[in-house]
Amino acid sequence: MRFSRSAIAAGLATAATFMSAEASSSSSDVLVLGKGNFTENVANEPLMLVEFYAPWCGHCKALAPEYEKASTELLADKIKLAKVDCTEENELCAEHGVEGFPTLKIFRTGSSSDYNGNRKADGIVSYMKKQALPALSELTADTYADFKGKDRVVAIAYLDATDKTSLDAVTAVADSLRDNYLFGVVNDAAVAKEAGITAPAFVVYRQFDEPEVKFDGKTFNEETLTNFIKAESIPLIDELNAENFMSYAESGLPLAYLFADPESKDLKSHVDSLKTLAKANKGKLNFVWIDGVKYSQHAKSLNIQGEDWPAFAVQDIEQNLKFPLEDLSGDLVGKVTDFVKQYTAGALKPSVKSEPIPKDQDGPVHVLVADEFDAVIGDDSKDKLVEFYAPWCGHCKKLAPTYDTLGEKYKAHKDKVLIAKMDATANDIPPTAGFQVQSFPTIKFQAAGSKDWIEFTGDRSLEGFVDFIALNGKHKVSVDLDPINETEQATPAKEAPHHEEL
Ligand SMILES: *[C@@H]1O[C@H](CO)[C@@H](O)[C@H](O)[C@H]1NC(C)=O
Ligand SMILES: *[C@@H]1O[C@H](CO)[C@@H](O)[C@H](O)[C@H]1NC(C)=O
């Protein structure tokens, strides 16, 4: 779960590496602050954003032009942005608990809280504007029209002044989602009437797709309103990138991707052609399109083999299940529609990446692959220890000799104890395992007859493993810890090198 999200986020984040910092303009609206003038500048501002940075830091350089732009845009709202160079202002940065760069903090008359927005100019502006308002703004005939268009997503509740129950629900939603959306409430019947709306109502105004969507559920409570705004704030088909990936992952819904070449003249028509399908599946699947050229690694991680765009895939992020559909030739919409129909009906099998099943197992450690996973792990007669590794992982390489010795030691007990390893970059851990790995190596144990996995977190020494197996295994097999007599030993078979990239 977390593995899949973080891995994808990391994959997408690599894009940030390619974003070069634009040259910043010489005249700047960002205040430069130091120890001598920090307090006097911050203490009296009702709302201010401060960046603690280091000139050498790459993410700071990428942020700089965005920060400048946001600062200029926020002048109109009298919200100041400031920065502190922590290489010059060690003490000041330490005082504010700065541990990494850049650190962004919001200050309200001198007291600070974390900034939770993104690092794009638009995102900073939108976030700070929301911070400047109460979580729920009371709207009047004068402020109503302007408020509706103030942000990408604005929610307005129309309530009778006496309707305390609905107001409580709306207030609760606004309090918990104030960082994400703007919330207003109209109590003035005349304003509601002019808008053509009868209270109680909850309307989401958007700068994409249909500009106005009204909550039409029966129950008007915190949960139903929260679900409504979360669903309606996602465009039918947006472009997926490192900035918005997390919001899709957090929605908990499977993600349907159209991988496309952004240079293709068909891009727009392909994206538009899927809107009807996206709409029909709202609340079940989120649809996005993604730059297949830039994110080709991400396509690979969804088991899309080639790099011929467009291609399509559905990913169940929660369970890390992948459903690739590569051949879209001829009838893109027809093929995708059919595929999605099968997916939502539960008729599709997830794609599980696997190395071929090894012809023989003559190495000290059993080489486990995805295609053989269920058969090997399903063998109830044995205690099973499995290392999930990545070929590039240093700790895995360091562990290898010990793990080989362990495998060698248990060869005499191979009807009772299996010592196995799986290259988790070349094999998907099948959904039947019930877990995904988040780091390498991950070592898991399943006692004979049990379906439960225990994570090995002990000392990765021969003794550590042997004690663990003797303690947790059904068969309680222990082996001696003497070094293996090399002269008796056949040289362990060398593993074939894997060249898979993560
Ligand atoms: C605050 O002090 C720093 C030097 O520590 C100076 O560079 C900066 O211009 C000053 N900023 C303001 C707003 O006075
Ligand atoms: C290893 O095995 C060989 C042959 O069985 C024996 O001669 C030798 O003494 C053994 N060495 C050790 C260190 O046990």
Automatic annotation (TrEMBL):
Domain Thioredoxin: start-end pairs: 10-133, 343-474
GO MF annotations, alphabetized: protein disulfide isomerase activity
Alphabetic keyword roster: Disulfide bond, Endoplasmic reticulum, Isomerase, Redox-active center, Repeat, Signal
Top-rank EC class of the record's enzyme: isomerase
Localization per Swiss-Prot or TrEMBL: Endoplasmic reticulum lumen
Cysteine pairs bridged by disulfides in the record: 57-60, 393-396
Keyword Repeat part of the UniProt annotation: yes
Chief site of localization: endoplasmic reticulum
Catalytic activity reported: Catalyzes the rearrangement of -S-S- bonds in proteins
UniProt keyword Cytoplasm, yes or no: no
Signal peptide feature range: 1-23
Family listed: Belongs to the protein disulfide isomerase family.
Task performed by this protein: Participates in the folding of proteins containing disulfide bonds, may be involved in glycosylation, prolyl hydroxylation and triglyceride transfer.
UniProt protein name: Protein disulfide-isomerase
Native species: Pseudozyma hubeiensis (strain SY62) (Yeast)
